[in-house]
Write a structure and sequence with these properties.
By secondary structure, this protein is mainly beta. The protein has one domain: Jelly Rolls (Sandwich). 4% of the residues lie in helices and 52% in strands. The protein contains 1 helix and 26 strands. The protein has a 7-stranded antiparallel β-sheet with strand order 1-22-19-24-17-14-13, with no helix packed on it. A 7-stranded antiparallel β-sheet has the order 2-3-4-11-6-9-12, with no helix packed on it. The model has no long low-confidence stretch (mean pLDDT 95). This is Quercetin 2,3-dioxygenase. Its cofactor is Fe cation. Keywords: Iron, Metal-binding. It comes from Pseudidiomarina aestuarii.
Length: 274
């Protein structure tokens, strides 16, 4: 059953990158444990070429998943890598990290997602981590004539490369054929489906590209393409943390006092030393 449906809204971030904000916008705030979901999609380099110059984070995880184009990551811990079409990068900011995400192309289509996932209070000041997962490391499952890429979590005996087991976190990229597809639920309280290509019937209701559906926790997800055009969705599921959320831009903690401390640490150049 679809609980509510929402359309992403235009936004800008970084040095002026144009994107669509899907989660953490006026009609759809935090979806615990998911703090934010952005889609960036343009073949006009003026929309993305300025990228995301160095900026700090604390208290959560970022996950970047690319459909087209190339984006380079560099951070203050010494990690560097390029995520390309079909690949994902996972960064646990935790106690603090400063990173940059910059296009590695001057023209062509840049298309992908960035997801922010909250951390429980006990992990917010743990050590920062980063991992690069190229396209060939992401398992693909065939369900009827659909292709399911398992980016995070467990499904049908397969494991995605990104794991946060305590949250039963699941992320799938599902490219539909013409046959219906059923994806069973594992009972995660937060279940979301975002249509990023074509029109898709979700449990009988048709959603258009750019719409997200909040789903009941226990229903099997029934998907079917609603037209000749290619249809694809991102599926997210996870267990809520259930703790207070305090956010100021790139810092996500539990209290305002912790946010103020994060700002002081950043200004003093000790974000990662706290």
């Amino acid at each position: 059953m679809i609980l509510t449906r929402h359309r992403g809204m235009p936004a800008q971030d970084g040095a002026g990158v144009k994107l669509t904000r899907i989660i953490n916008q006026p009609s759809l705030r935090y979806q615990d444990p998911f703090l934010m979901l952005d889609e960036f999609r343009s073949d006009d380099p003026n929309d993305y070429i300025a990228g995301f110059p160095p900026h700090p984070h604390r208290g959560f995880v970022t996950l970047t998943y690319m459909l087209a184009g190339r984006m380079e990551h560099k951070d203050s811990v010494g990690n560097t890598g390029v995520v390309e079409a079909g690949g994902a990068q996972w960064m646990k900011a935790a106690k603090g990290i400063i990173h940059a995400e910059m296009p590695k192309q001057e023209d062509g289509l840049m298309w992908g997602f960035q997801l922010w996932i909250n951390l429980p209070a006990k992990d917010k000041l743990s050590a920062a981590q980063w991992a690069d997962h190229p396209a060939e490391k992401i398992p693909e499952l065939a369900i009827n004539d659909a292709t399911v890429r398992l980016i995070a979590g467990e499904y049908e005996g397969q494991s995605g490369p990104i794991q946060q087991p305590e949250q039963q976190f699941l992320m799938m990229d599902i490219k539909l054929g013409q046959a219906p597809v059923g994806i069973e639920s594992f009972g995660q309280q937060t279940r979301l489906v975002y249509v990023y290509q074509g029109n898709v019937a979700i449990n009988g209701d048709v959603l258009q590209r750019g719409e997200l559906a909040r789903l009941a926790a226990t229903d099997t997800l029934q998907l079917q393409s609603d037209g000749a055009e290619d249809a694809s969705v991102i599926l997210l599921a996870g267990e809520p943390i259930g703790e207070p959320i305090a956010q100021y831009g790139p810092f996500v903690m539990n209290t305002q006092q912790e946010i103020e401390q994060a700002i002081r640490d950043y200004q003093a150049g000790r974000l990662q030393e706290a």
